[in-house]
Amino acid sequence: MVIREYTKSDELEWLRCRVLSFLDCSYYNDVLTHREIYENDSICLVAEEDGKIIGLIDVEIEKEAGSLCVAGKQSGAVIWHLAVLPEYRRSHIGCFSMG
């Protein structure tokens, strides 16, 4: 498995991963036909295995505190999309360390 930055050529696989990952949750009907483009800086990563996107995360970062999210007087960020294909759940794809 490789974690890498999202590229425009990933869009179809990104959409597929998001739709399939959301089918068994309350966002099952939140279907997109195009990936959003963010107004602010963002971190957009995909988890890829054998050429297939199996997970993703999109985070938009505030330019100034309070302009995008409520994080007090500090700048913050919003996780807009976090998804892992059902067959890859519990494989530590969505885990991170603050070490």
Characterize the structure shown:
With about 100 residues, the protein is an alpha+beta fold. The protein has one domain (about 1-90): Aminopeptidase, CATH 3.40.630. The chain contains 1 helix and 4 strands; from the N terminus they run E-H-E-E-E. It has one helix spanning about 10-20, and strands spanning about 1-5, 40-50, 50-60, 75-85. The chain has a 4-stranded antiparallel β-sheet, covered by helices on one side. It starts with a strand and ends in a 15-residue tail after the last strand. The model has no long low-confidence stretch (mean pLDDT about 85).
Characteristics of this structure?
single chain; 99 residues; alpha+beta; Aminopeptidase; 1 helix; 12% helix
Quick structural overview:
The protein has one domain: Gcn5-related N-acetyltransferase (GNAT) (Aminopeptidase), CATH 3.40.630.30. It is 12% helix and 30% strand. It starts with a strand and ends in a 15-residue tail after the last strand.
